[in-house]
């Protein structure tokens, strides 16, 4: 488990991470979502003790990273696949990492096999493709068979096959009961990978909770209705308190109602429907609105009825 | 112990240390052979003369040492290092031990190599290590290389960039210390305390005609004995290294 409390990091004038508190549970993939510059990488560096927090702390299984004995056995991380000496072979790179934490050379060959790099193990890492580098990074993270794993934008720049491989891999790791934190700036990607989400914007927590709830709430759900009798249907819908927007071409866009409810109302009024289709706003659009102004969103959150219970507003 | 092995793997699994090692051997030995080949009765070959090229090897060894740390910053492996061993002092000290040992061994090999090749080229000149001064002339080179490596590591830790660290070391050792002579009167007094001059005094001090690093007659009056000079050079180097380690512990990786 990872637990951040009031984590803050300032670089001169820039506040990269601002009083961030969240927890990451074992047994599931937790997405760490935020637009570019939100502070994801900075937070991950602080989790690993590489950057010192200006304030607050972050604990892994109850301990700060720097107090872990042979930490690669507890926490594996891939923050940047390029953190390898280009003239060193993949095997040599893993070998020194393994030695530093008292892991046998046998383990190096195991993880190379696991990520499918056995054949190129002796080649210089500088000549690796992005996908291969990423696999090497993952091999490094897995060396100590750790219970906690951090990945910073692991699918960035990968082809669909590579993305699928990493996604399945991370879900497999979580299924083993490990704590997996994966950062991304794409909600659409996280929707497929992560069960839980920690969402940040401008260094602040926006929300923490399950991915489905987040998507449900952050995208506007509307229903498109096409009917030759709109003049009869519209007042009936307005009566029930739904918001109706006339689209002009014989269709209405209804928000606040499910397609079931609209169908029932139409039937009750004897209105013929030619189309009744639920619409979902784009994930990316919704996400941009949310993170575009973190503070404003947080105020909205308090006043919205539909907020799922397991969403923890920032600061709690 | 494991960290020493780790740093050994890291050092020797890349190419630049091998090249530097080769160069640090080739330059002093090459220069010694040229000097030996051109020596004659007007320009007699001596033990100390065979070691003229030690400065070149020292510079190369310092570049090797600086690279050992700055490339870790350049390629981000320093982050993996501190991730694997969060107590930063431990891997940094291990690196210092490995690099210093290598520097010492290379220094001895270069020095005795230079002496050996001179003997081969001029078999009739008596190049024997008969006095303690002559031993110091030759065997001292490894010690100076080792201290120079510590100094360069410290500079590398502080600067973190290859170009910056190497320029500072080159300008310091080759230029700045010699330019101090230009300061009237006190220039030579200051020089007596400058680390690379003092290191040279350790190797060549107490000779009948001290060479002086700038080739001219030695105008610098050293206040330390040769072995005191080595301690001084070692002390300065160690101080820079310790500052480097302390700063690295405080900074973000
Ligand atoms: N070492 C540093 N020095 C100064 N500013 C920094 C440093 N690292 C990060 N920042 C700043 O902190 C903020 C957060 O950066 P960070 O890299 O953590 O964001 P991120 O969420 O990982 O973004 P991305 O999606 O682009 O990777 C940015 O404004 C960045 O410019
Ligand atoms: Mg980032």
UniProtKB/TrEMBL annotation, chain A:
Domain ABC transporter: residue ranges: 2-227
UniProt keyword annotations, A-Z: ATP-binding, Nucleotide-binding, Transport
Claim: Nucleotide-binding is one of the keywords in the record: yes
Gene3D superfamilies, A to Z: P-loop containing nucleotide triphosphate hydrolases
Domain of life from the UniProt record: Bacteria
This protein's record includes keyword Transport: yes
Molecular function as annotated in GO: ATP binding; ATP hydrolysis activity
InterPro entries: AAA+_ATPase, ABC_transporter-like_ATP-bd, ABC_transporter-like_CS, P-loop_NTPase
Family annotation (Pfam families): ABC_tran (PF00005)
Protein family (similarity comment): Belongs to the ABC transporter superfamily.
Name of protein: ATP-binding cassette domain-containing protein
Organism: Solihabitans fulvus
From TrEMBL, chain B:
Transmembrane portions of the chain: 52-71, 92-118, 138-159, 166-186, 230-248
Keywords of the record: Membrane, Transmembrane, Transmembrane helix
Source taxon at top rank: Bacteria
Name this protein carries in UniProt: ABC-2 type transport system permease protein
Organism annotation: Solihabitans fulvus
């Amino acid at each position: 488990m990872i637990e951040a409390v009031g984590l803050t990091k300032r670089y001169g004038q820039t506040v990269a991470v601002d009083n961030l508190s969240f927890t990451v549970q074992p047994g599931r993939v937790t997405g760490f979502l935020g637009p570019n510059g939100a502070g994801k990488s900075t937070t991950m560096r602080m989790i690993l003790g590489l950057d010192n927090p200006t304030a607050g702390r972050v604990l892994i299984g109850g301990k700060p990273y720097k107090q872990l004995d042979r930490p690669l056995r507890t926490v594996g991380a891939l923050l940047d696949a390029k953190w390898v000496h280009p003239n060193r072979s993949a095997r040599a790179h893993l070998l020194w990492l393994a030695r530093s934490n008292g892991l046998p050379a046998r383990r190096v060959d195991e993880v190379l096999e696991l990520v499918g790099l056995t054949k190129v193990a002796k080649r210089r890492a500088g000549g690796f493709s992005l996908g291969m580098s990423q696999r090497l990074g993952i091999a490094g993270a897995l060396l100590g068979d750790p219970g906690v794993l951090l990945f910073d934008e692991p699918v960035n720049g990968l082809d669909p096959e590579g993305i699928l491989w990493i996604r399945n891999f991370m879900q497999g790791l979580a299924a083993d009961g490990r704590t997996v934190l994966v950062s991304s700036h794409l909600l659409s990607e996280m929707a497929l990978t992560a069960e839980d989400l920690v969402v940040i914007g401008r260094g602040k927590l926006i929300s923490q909770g399950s991915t489905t709830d987040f998507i449900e709430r952050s995208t506007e759900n509307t229903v498109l209705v096409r009917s030759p009798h709109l003049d009869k249907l519209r007042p009936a819908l307005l009566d029930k308190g739904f918001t109706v927007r006339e689209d002009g071409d014989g269709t209405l866009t209804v928000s606040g109602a499910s397609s079931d409810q609209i169908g029932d109302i139409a039937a009750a009024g004897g209105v013929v429907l030619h189309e009744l289709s639920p619409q979902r706003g784009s994930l990316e659009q919704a996400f941009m609105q949310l993170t575009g102004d973190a503070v404003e969103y947080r105020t909205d959150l308090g006043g919205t009825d539909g907020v799922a219970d397991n969403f923890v507003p920032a600061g709690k | 112990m494991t960290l020493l092995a780790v740093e050994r793997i890291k050092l020797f699994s890349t190419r630049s240390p091998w090249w530097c090692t080769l160069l640090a051997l080739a330059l002093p030995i090459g220069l010694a052979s040229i000097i030996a080949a051109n020596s004659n009765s007007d320009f007699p070959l001596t033990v100390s003369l065979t070691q003229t090229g030690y400065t070149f090897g020292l510079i190369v060894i310092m570049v090797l040492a600086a690279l050992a740390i700055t490339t870790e910053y350049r390629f981000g492996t320093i982050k993996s290092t501190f991730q694997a061993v969060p107590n930063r002092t431990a891997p940094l000290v291990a690196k210092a031990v490995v690099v210093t040992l290598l520097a010492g061994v290379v220094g001895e090999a270069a020095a005795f190599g230079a002496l050996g090749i001179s003997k081969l080229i001029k078999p009739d000149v008596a190049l024997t290590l008969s006095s303690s001064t002559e031993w110091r002339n030759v065997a001292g080179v490894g010690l100076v290389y080792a201290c120079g490596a510590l100094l360069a590591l410290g500079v590398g830790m502080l600067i973190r960039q290859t170009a910056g660290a190497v320029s500072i070391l080159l300008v310091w050792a080759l230029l700045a210390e010699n330019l101090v002579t230009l300061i009237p009167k006190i220039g030579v007094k200051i020089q007596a305390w400058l680390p690379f001059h003092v290191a040279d005094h350790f190797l060549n001090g107490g000779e009948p005609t001290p060479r002086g690093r700038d080739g001219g007659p030695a105008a610098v009056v050293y206040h330390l004995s040769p072995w005191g000079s080595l301690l001084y050079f070692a002390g300065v180097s160690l101080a820079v290294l310790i500052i480097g380690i302390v700063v690295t512990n405080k900074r973000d990786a």
